[in-house]
Amino acid sequence: MSRTFSISPGGTLSGTISIPGDKSISHRAIMLGSIAEGMTDVYGFLEGEDALATLAVFRAMGVRIERPGPGRVTVHGVGAHGLKAPAETMDVGNSGTSMRLLAGLLAAQPFECVLSGDESLSRRPMRRVTEPLAQMGARIDTAPGGTPPLTIHGHGALRGIRYDMPVASAQVKSALLLAGLYAAGDTCVREPAPTRDHTERMLDTLGWPTELRDGYICVRGGARLRGARIDVPADISSAAFFLVGAAIAEGSDVLLPSVGINPTRTGVLDILKLMGADIELLDQRMLGGEPVADLRVRGGGLRGIEIPVELVPLAIDEFPALFIAAACAEGRTVLRGAEELRVKESDRIQVMADGLRTLGIDAQPTPDGMIIEGGRAFGGGSIESHGDHRIAMSFAVAALRAGEEIGIRDCDNVDTSFPGFVSTARTAGLGIAESRSAMTSGKM
Ligand code: S3P
């Protein structure tokens, strides 16, 4: 049985919409809290399947982690050398962040373990982390295509390296920094373009800061982290569906409280503003080590743009939602330089183009992006999400501008990043209902 959404066409979004905690920060709070000394108290933790998969991994390695209430997690850190060998294979489900970051952390532990994932994760490339980790002395086996499962033959003799990352990836950077906490000497990483820096900020909070040297982000080995309180902002990647929904539906007016506006994540705001969206950042402040604001968005006319290529890594998870904005914007929108979208939870260029065309929208996929002719009325239809949470939620908000009902199949994975999406969206004004239906070979 699989979850299906049906959304009636039209409507507006209004009111205050509470967005769940940031997924990237929630993962890191569990990982770094576990290897810190003393207690780490997390507030606003994302209780989605991905972050819970990370939590289960550390419990399997002997860390006591309590969940005293909604959004609250208490991690009783075991120190850098306190993790225990897990009894069995650790399945991280759909979570690429868990698998890639853990590859770095576990390569430095004195035991062997295996990380596996679901069908989607089992197709995703892992050499981008295993190859530089091998240069540090790590021994990690992948499946023949460089995909999961990962068998990590951990040992305590990693050495620091200086590494120029070929792709702008926060997961690769973080995997190397986590391994670097244990390596002999310094581990220094240079990114071709800035990517999310939550690992660096949290290391700072826990008392083992990274250093920027000649364009390289460096961490010293032999780390000792101290547990601390961590406040998790609302996830701008989850807020994106409501930013876009409100922006495309004239008459909408929403307030999204305490959303993370870390400058390495705000490409979606910049791109929507370039398209003419009415977005205000209210009460900007710091929450823990991360900047947040209340975001107010009002619906109005959008225009198509050429998306500046330097904004791509800063909005990498928001393109499914941004393609919907582009479909509703007057004129042409062109995205280039985003080939990474092809190796996310699904091939987000192809899957989004297929779905947009199902609705009657003129969308041309290219090897590294998409060209969308927007602003024309479009219909409804049945969309395949391919089990990708962000594809499902993007087409859900597209219904605000559709002429007919939109059905979306294979929506179970929405819970990986946005538990409660359906009730949140319904309260905000979306005519969304869900049902369960049988699946045959990946299709309904
Ligand atoms: C993430 C980094 C990004 C992003 C993913 C979360 C992270 O992946 O797409 O959803 O938490 O570090 P890449 O590093 O592969 O770009």
Task: Provide a descriptive summary of the structure in words.
The protein is an alpha/beta fold and 444 residues long. Helix content is 29%, strand content 27%. The protein contains 13 helices and 24 strands. It has helices spanning 23-34, 49-60, 96-107, 127-135, 170-180, 198-205, 236-248, 267-274, 319-328, 348-358, 389-398, 414-417, 421-428; strands spanning 2-7, 14-16, 36-43, 64-69, 72-78, 90-91, 112-116, 140-141, 150-153, 162-164, 186-190, 211-213, 216-220, 225-226, 229-231, 253-260, 278-287, 290-298, 331-335, 362-366, 369-374, 381-384, 406-409, 432-437. The longest helix is centred in the middle third of the chain and has 13 residues, at 236-248. The mean pLDDT is 97. The site of shikimate-3-phosphate has 10 residues, from α5.
> Rounded to an integer, what's the Rg over CA atoms?
21 Å
Give the overall pLDDT as a whole number: 97
Task: Enumerate the spans where pLDDT stays under 50 for 5 or more consecutive residues.
Answer: none
The proportion of strand residues reads: 25-35%
Small-molecule binders here are: shikimate-3-phosphate
* Class from secondary-structure proportions: alpha/beta
From the spread of the alpha carbons, the general shape counts as globular
Strands, count: 24
How far the N terminus sits from the C terminus, by CA atoms, comes to 9 Å
Helix content, binned percent: 25-40%
How many helices? The count is 13
Assembly level: single chain
Largest sheet: 5 strands, mixed
